[in-house]
Protein: NIT1
Organism: Candida metapsilosis
Amino acid sequence: MVKKVLAALQIGPEPTTKQTLDKILSYQQELKQANVDLVVIPEATLGGYPKGSTFGTYLGYRLPCGREEYLAYHKQSISIPGPETDTLSAFSREIDATIAIGVIENEGVRGSTTLYCTIVYIDPKLGYVGKHRKLMPTATERIIWGQGDGSTLPVIESSAGRIGGAICWENYMPLLRQSYYSKGIDIWVAPTVDMREIWRCSMRTFAYEGRNFVVSAVQFQPPPPVEQTTKDSPPGWPKGENLIDGGSVIINPMGEIIAGPLLGREGLLTAEIETDDVIRARFDLDPAGHYFRGDVFKLIVDETAKDVEFKK
């Protein structure tokens, strides 16, 4: 019987990436006291999720102000690996836990300014060990983020088990989920900004479908400060309502919520698990084993890297 502690750190971005990184580091003592083995941090935490922004884009034309906004946004993105992942590696060693964190990643090569919504994996002993770029940005996210490819679909060996996952709505891609199931995933990480109850219902379904643990870490963003002008608030958003209300959950392989949802505030959500629960749950449904009809269905996954021009 092996016990591990899973955690979701429900926070939102500060005005700068450095300030956001400092906020993450401020949870060091709380994470150490909780003896966490894995901590998941929400989608686009480093770099930010600019909810409500249009980047000056309208059907058929774009305003110069949007280019300035994109420039400012790009300057808060990170390279992988880079100084921020080095800081997170040191933090991972301090808390002795694997980190899965949502970031905004720049291409990091001369001549390319494409941004990606990415999960970065940090190991307490090895440091940076892998990343996953969001395959399908949703709706107007496609204005500012490129598409990932099959070369970043890792399953990471950690002390808590084999971990991997997807970002926000790409979790709704059935073949993506099956590709991870086929790699023997134990813990599914789902950093997101989706605060709705239907999202938590989906996470329960995917835990039960894959017979794996799920850690869904959701951002928390308060309302815009009252001193801001109305142009800085998302159009149509209720005055005084949190932009993102959280809702982080931890779910067991039978689809039961074992921690959360954490709503309306920042904070740390934790749950102690027994790793053998994955085996128990797959007794009657193993989506990559006895319940997978490989003789009938074939899944082909192209894990080669694609050229930049095909990504956006």
Q: What stands out?
A: The longest strand covers residues 38-46. The two ends are 46 Å apart (CA to CA).
